[in-house]
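STRUCTURE:
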């Protein structure tokens, strides 16, 4: 599966007054990203509405394994309704306290020991490095629990997403870290059909796909015009994955699921 980055606007929640529903909207983004193994979520600031801090904290909270939340997230107004977010249940979120040798977990280092979600702290195996804060570990012993610190990039399964923030969509697109084939999504884009999918498969020849989404009130073209730029100058494909939509609008979280489904089936 190719790695996927998604670009979403800071105005994701702009039309929602109820804070609980705002939290649920962000939770839908977190769930969709996890279901389709998105590696990176970039929040770009939209001048029409900036809810970056709220969106970022909720996304990071949702992605955090339950046993690490108390270490990483102090009481916050943004997290008041975080409980409404459905659990992600990704491989990095253990569903049980029992462990097996060779299993991977995320942990929080405390001296020479680490909290990996057990009733007792696990010992860090000597010679595997000393790090502070959050680490990824492999279980080397069960009784007593012992682990070795490993590189998250070596994990053979989906290990969650990263969250980054950029000052504008234009700057996000010009970011050197944005390594991959960019695809714009728009209701005015080319309808995805068999012929277009063949073209996209030839276009997406790198390891990473970058999917860009507009805001609830403005499309990508309008957002880029804030910085006196346009989609045309980039030359990226512009696609519409919802043919003959039956509603006046397609919400971002709905467009996200539809687009990631196409990528999962045909572009991976």
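SEQUENCE:
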């Amino acid at each position: 599966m190719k790695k996927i980055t998604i670009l979403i606007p800071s105005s994701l929640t702009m039309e929602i007054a109820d804070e609980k529903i705002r939290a649920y909207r962000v939770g839908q983004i977190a769930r969709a990203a996890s279901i389709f193994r998105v590696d990176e979520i970039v929040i770009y600031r939209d001048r029409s509405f900036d809810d970056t801090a709220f969106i970022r904290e909720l996304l990071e909270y949702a992605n955090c394994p339950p046993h690490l939340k108390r270490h990483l997230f102090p009481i916050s107004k943004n997290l008041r309704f975080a409980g409404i977010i459905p659990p992600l249940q990704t491989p990095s979120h253990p569903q049980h306290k029992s462990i097996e040798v060779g299993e991977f977990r995320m942990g929080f280092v405390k001296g020479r020991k680490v909290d990996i979600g057990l009733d007792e702290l696990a010992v860090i195996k000597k010679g595997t490095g000393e790090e502070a804060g959050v680490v990824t570990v492999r279980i080397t012993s069960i009784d007593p629990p012992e682990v070795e610190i490993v590189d998250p990039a070596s994990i053979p399964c989906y290990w969650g997403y990263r969250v980054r923030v950029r000052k504008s969509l234009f700057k996000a697109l010009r970011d050197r870290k944005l390594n991959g084939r960019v695809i714009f999504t728009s209701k005015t884009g080319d309808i995805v059909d068999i012929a277009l999918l063949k073209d996209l498969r030839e276009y997406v020849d790198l390891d990473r796909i970058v999917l860009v989404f507009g805001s609830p009130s403005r499309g990508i073209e309008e957002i880029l015009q804030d910085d006196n730029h346009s989609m045309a100058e980039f030359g990226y494909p512009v696609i519409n994955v919802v043919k003959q939509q039956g509603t006046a609008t397609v919400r971002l979280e709905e467009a996200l699921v539809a687009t990631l489904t196409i990528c999962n089936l045909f572009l991976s």
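REMARK: The first strand starts at residue 3 and ends at 9.
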